User: Fold this.
Amino acid sequence: MESASVGVRYDPSEPDEARVEPSGAPIYALIADYHISEGNLEQVAADYRCSVEEVQAALDYYEQHQFAIDFKIDPTRF
Assistant:
């Protein structure tokens, strides 16, 4: 059985609303949980019932859209 392809679905005009595929987990939520779990990829994947590869895809996306994601997580920081 083949595993589903991992990727990111987003609208360029709303980078903070991006989701990882195939689970559909919101990237901002994965990143917030990643920070709370002190970088534990396996814990984040378990929390959102997605693959570690999807969490890694979220982190890769976050590198390119950090401000938008951080603002979505906590707008009072800015």
Observations:
- Residues 52-64 form the longest helix (13 residues).
- The CA atoms of residues 62 and 69 lie 7 Å apart.
- The first strand starts at residue 7 and ends at 11.
